[in-house]
Hints:
Layout: H1 2-18, H2 23-52, H3 54-90, H4 103-115, H5 121-133, H6 138-141
Helix pairs in contact: 1-2, 2-3, 4-5
Amino acid sequence: GNNLVNIAMSSIATGLLALYLSQGQAVAIATFGITAIVLLFGESAPKSYAVEHTESWALRISKPLKAAEKVLLPLILLFDYLTRVVNKITGGRSAIETSYVTREEIQDIIETGEREGVLDEDEREMLQRTLRFNDTIAKEVMTPRL
């Protein structure tokens, strides 16, 4: 989605600038101009705003996002189905089915959180225990009834 929009913006800007400038100038100005605009207004500014105004932003955007989800649900289901069909034919796997973050990365985040003072030692230990819980057999933690 983002790539398509970014390419379209660059193409439109290049076409418009080519009406007034040479082709080389139009390409250079459009490329650098659109890149700067995308980075500033599409990446940095929204993320900075969301970090500074987390709760108010979440409350404000939640209803429109829920509405968009309902409107787009047929497309989501269609593309999900098509992805599964293509994956079955090609033997591939969906990126959704694979883990985005490894255990080691989560462990590093926990350790960094403690080092930076975001987590205290008890919180770190609790989070680390949840990671180890996956390796625990139910029999090991069960208490027998008498």
